[in-house]
């Protein structure tokens, strides 16, 4: 593949977004993401898809500038009002992020799909990558886990109203607060927790940074109902693939059940930020979140020197 000196972050790593240096020295950040509905309410789906698309920019310390819509919709099979609601959800979330939607593209498709291309910017000093975690760093997580399990339960008609409400709130919450909090402390590395789950994205961070990590399962917090649904066998296919993928690199405490392992590997949608920062700045990071943020970030583990077992999941 040809190289271009303007590309700061591209295909060569596993970072969340592409970063390109403009002629004036500014750094442009770009990403795209879209998926099929994971909740029944079309407006909520639009909000979640937009928040998910914005997360990659936030994870790299960037500020979103503009959005483009990506839409697939069965125009002859579903009411146009459904598409209108999806797009309204995305528009309202973009407004919350402070950016305009400046265009997009749609195709007639058998199943609805929605997402966004997001363009943002970041200064050189605020650029955060997933490849620069350091020994001794604390690992912070800014949202609870379990959205994959609950989304699968929604499709099966097994999710409670409480689980649906909590998952929808979490997935539709912007990671803007996390990005702003990162600017208040000395963050070494970060990524957003999405399809590869907590263990998958942490594995990427560790391998790219040439470090290992320990995670305390007992410190992880899950959305209401996620445990009960997982114990009932409601496990997404993506979560199962995640666990299969990380197993060779993770040492699981013998006290952890297979259900525990699935929950730690659950494929997330619009999950929180996983942030590596100095241990002595943990409280400052937590305090940097506004009091109206729906969740209090938690420390879930720490970064260690590189070992044969890349991640240790303790009970």
Short note summarizing the structure:
The chain is of the alpha+beta class and 315 residues long.
Protein architecture, described:
The model has no long low-confidence stretch (mean pLDDT 94). Strand 2 (18-21) and strand 3 form a beta hairpin. The protein has 2 domains: 7-125, 60s Ribosomal Protein L30, Chain: A (2-Layer Sandwich); 129-314, PurM-like C-terminal domain (Phosphoribosyl-aminoimidazole Synthetase, Chain A, domain 2), CATH 3.90.650. The protein has 10 helices and 13 strands. The strands form 2 sheets. The chain has a 7-stranded mixed beta sheet, sandwiched between helices. The protein has a 6-stranded mixed beta sheet with strand order 1-2-3-6-4-5, covered by helices on one side. With 315 residues, the chain is an alpha+beta fold. It has helices spanning 42-59, 80-97, 147-155, 161-172, 176-182, 197-209, 226-231, 237-246, 258-264, 282-287; strands at residues 7-9, 18-21, 27-35, 63-73, 101-108, 113-122, 137-141, 189-192, 212-216, 250-252, 273-278, 298-304, 311-314. The termini are far apart. The radius of gyration is 19 Å and the shape is globular.
């Amino acid at each position: 593949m040809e190289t271009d000196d303007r590309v700061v972050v591209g295909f060569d790593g596993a970072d969340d977004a592409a970063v390109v240096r403009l002629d004036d020295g500014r750094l442009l950040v770009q990403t795209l993401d879209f998926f099929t509905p994971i909740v029944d309410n079309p407006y909520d789906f639009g909000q979640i898809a937009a928040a998910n698309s914005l997360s990659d920019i936030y994870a790299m310390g960037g500020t979103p500038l503009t959005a483009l819509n990506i839409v697939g919709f069965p125009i002859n099979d579903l009411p146009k009002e459904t598409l209108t609601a999806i797009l309204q959800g995305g528009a309202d979330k973009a407004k919350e992020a402070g950016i305009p939607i400046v265009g997009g593209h749609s195709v007639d498709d058998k199943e609805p799909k929605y997402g966004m291309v997001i363009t943002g910017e970041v200064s050189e000093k605020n650029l955060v990558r997933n490849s620069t975690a350091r020994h001794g760093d604390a690992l912070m997580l800014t949202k609870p886990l379990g959205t994959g399990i609950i989304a699968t339960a929604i499709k099966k008609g097994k999710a409670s109203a409480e689980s649906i409400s909590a998952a929808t709130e979490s997935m539709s919450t912007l990671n803007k607060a996390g990005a702003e909090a990162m600017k208040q402390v000395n963050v070494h590395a970060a990524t957003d927790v999405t399809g590869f789950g907590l263990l998958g994205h942490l594995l990427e961070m560790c391998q790219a940074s040439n470090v290992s990590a320990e995670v305390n399962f007992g410190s992880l917090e899950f959305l209401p109902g996620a445990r009960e649904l997982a114990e009932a066998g409601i496990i997404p296919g993506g979560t199962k693939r995640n666990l299969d993928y990380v197993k060779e690199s993770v040492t699981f405490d013998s006290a952890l059940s297979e259900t525990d392992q699935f929950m730690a590997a659950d494929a997330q949608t619009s999950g929180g930020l996983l942030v590596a920062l100095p241990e002595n700045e943990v409280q400052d990071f937590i305090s940097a979140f506004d009091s109206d943020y729906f969740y209090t970030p938690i420390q879930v583990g720490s970064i260690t020197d590189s070992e044969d077992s890349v991640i240790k999941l303790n009970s």
